[in-house]
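REQUEST ID: PR-0412
SUBMITTED BY: lab tech R.K.
PRIORITY: routine
TASK: structure prediction, single protein chain
INPUT:
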Amino acid sequence: MLILFGILVIIASVVLGLIVLVQNPKGGGLSSSFGGFGNQIMGVKQTTDVLEKGTWLFAAIVGILCIVSPAFIPKDGAGAAPNKELQENINTKPAKATTPNTAVPAGVDTGKK
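STATUS: complete
OUTPUT:
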């Protein structure tokens, strides 16, 4: 289920990015790229309204998917460790005790004869 949410977030983010890139900050945007053709069908004002509504819609979709997706994370710890036996060994077996290193480097006088 998390994979589905991830794919939906990626798709919505790409569409949102494309909508934002089509817009022109000075108001030209999509309507100026069609020349006079955009004015005949939708008009300049309606084109920018559609793009602005699309921006808000896809931003809301991305936000809602990101907020809702943690509700679908399994609570039983499934997927926490790739190998269940390995996880049990880590939790139950004590670590081996190590012995201190008593070796003396060559050429060091310890004072013992």
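NOTES: Residues 1-11+40-67 form one domain.
REVIEWED BY: pending
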